[in-house]
Amino acid sequence: MAEAYIVGAVRTPVGTRKGALAAVHPADLGAHVLKELVARTGVDPAAVEDVIMGCVTQVGPQAIDLARTAWLSAGLPESTPGVTIDRQCGSSQQAVHFAAQGVLSGTQDLVVAAGVENMGMVPMGANVQFAVDNGLPVYGEGWVQRYGTQEISQFRGAQLMCEKWGYTREQLERYALESHRRAAAAIAEGRFDAEITPLAGVSQDEGVRPDTSLEQMAALKPLREGWALTAAVASQISVGASALLIASERAVEEHGLTPLARIVQLALAGDDPVYMLTAPIPATRIALKKAGLSIDDIDVTEINEAFAPVPMAWIDEIGADPAKVNPNGGAIALGHPLGATGAVLMTKLVHELHRTGGRYGLQTMCEGGGQANVTIVERV
User: Fold this and answer.
1) CATH code at 70?
2) Residue 55 known to be catalytic
């Protein structure tokens, strides 16, 4: 049976929307991690058969097939093509899936999976704004017939989750505080140093607030009157890039590569698009069943903290040990550069498995449209 291995995983620091990385063109963000990936693995870049890159807001500086322009901006061979994909927040996790599937199918041996998003330069929703500015409907007639004209947004979806699972504002804020505490500890201990390639004078993730407190969070206004959500319990608007190299067993031998992890299982699920953020729950159940594993077999989980109720509900429904979930903090503290986050989380996951000696890792994240990816890997 064919195998797919992660043989390299690197990321930039996750920067804030007004930090130094915000001035870096998205293609140059991508070029930076691609060059570093090639350098760290020692692979002949001409042997790379495709570059699959996630990016959500593909407009302006993030248009014109960012995967291709980033690869060329890195000075890498013109013979390697690139494709840019959008599965909303899970775009670069899907890039990992597509790269692994190409290898597992036997049709490819070396594929780069990457993600880039500069939310400081290209604001979230800038592509949707085109429809608004030109008086065009965002959704077509079929959607309206099925779901009506109710608000469809991640913010409403997160609030609906709070109401469904009965989470209070205080519970959300305690979760958010722990995310900052874990992230601050990870940075202080240098846990991310091996996976980060500095850029623009930035060498650490910028969004962590080690001095935040429940009192400070309690002073914030809710996103809407009567809601449990505040900015403190949501992911941060961010800038970042990440890249991984996926290789076949044959490529590992031919190119003298060192596997970091083996791809065990790839799974997807859809759920209610109005709730939008709940699909990691059914997707995880599918992945574990297909892999023949239980949640107790998973040593480290990275689930994107789009909003606090997402990982909270996932933990409650799946029965996971909270200590194993986002052990080094999540997007509430570290930021969420949309199309880059999937690759960032997988990079963190692989490095954390090696740091701790864990065997199995699981990654999942909620995505627009009520979708989710789940990837299970085994440390090599």
Assistant:
1) 3.40.47.10
2) no
**Domain extent for 120:** 4-124+237-255
Beta bridge partners of 262: 5, 378
Give the pLDDT confidence of 144-194 residue by residue, as tens digits.
999 999 999 999 999 999 999 999 999 999 999 999 999 999 999 999 999
Which residue among 32, 180, 336, 351 is the active-site one?
336
Is 138 within a domain? Answer: no
CB 368 within 8 A of CB 343: no
Q: Check 32, 97, 162, 366 and give the catalytic one.
A: 366
- Split into its structural domains, the chain has a count of 1
Assess if residue 226 is contained within a domain: no
Backbone angles phi, psi at 369, to 5 degrees: 90, 0
Q: What is the spatial distance between Cα 337 and Cα 122, in angstroms, rounded to a whole number? A: 11
Q: Does any domain span residue 337?
A: no
In a domain, 16, yes or no: yes
Q: Which of 32, 55, 89, 97 is catalytic?
A: 89
Mean pLDDT of the residues in the chain: 98
Is 97 assigned a catalytic role?
Answer: no
The reply to whether 89 belongs to the active site is yes
